[in-house]
Amino acid sequence: MYNHSYLRVIVASVMLLFLLLFEPGVGLALYNVKQVSGKVVIVDPGAMTVTVEKDGKKIVLQVDGATKIMETKEKITIYEIAPGSRVKVKYTEINGQNAAKSIIVGPPD
Q: Which member of 22, 54, 71, 109 lies 3.0 to 4.6 Å from 38 by CB, making a disulfide possible if both were Cys?
């Protein structure tokens, strides 16, 4: 009666919808992307965090393997971000933590 691939698509769609609606933080993360531009004040590769200061307020950003870090069109790692550098960060807040999605690094002041 039904094609098996058609049923798989329906099941996968229902599962994704369930995840987006009922898993804490996941659905909101897709729509609640924030952005901050400021100066790097702390880089902690051990904790995988970068702290950015803007208007006297410090924002701690969690970095992971999915975070895209770019400097002058080249991909770099957290180890290459220098304190004092200007950055533009896109991030989402999930369970009280700021998860960096992308970091664009400019020259230090």
A: 54
In the numeric block, the tokens 């987006």 are attached to 20
Residue 70's identity, in one-letter code, is M
Q: Considering the chain, what is the average pLDDT of its residues? A: 85
Q: How are beta strands 97-108 and 68-71 bridged, if at all?
A: parallel
Percent of the chain with pLDDT over 70: 78
* Strand 68-71 with 85-94, pairing: unpaired
Classify residue 5 as left (phi > 0), alpha (psi -120 to 50) or beta: alpha
Query: 88 in helix, strand or coil?
Result: strand
DSSP string for residues in 29-81: HHH-EEEEEEEEEEEETTTTEEEEEETTEEEEEE--TT-EEEETTEE--GGGP
pTM of the model: 0.71
pLDDT at 13: 74
Residue 55 sits at φ, ψ, to 5 deg, of 55, 40
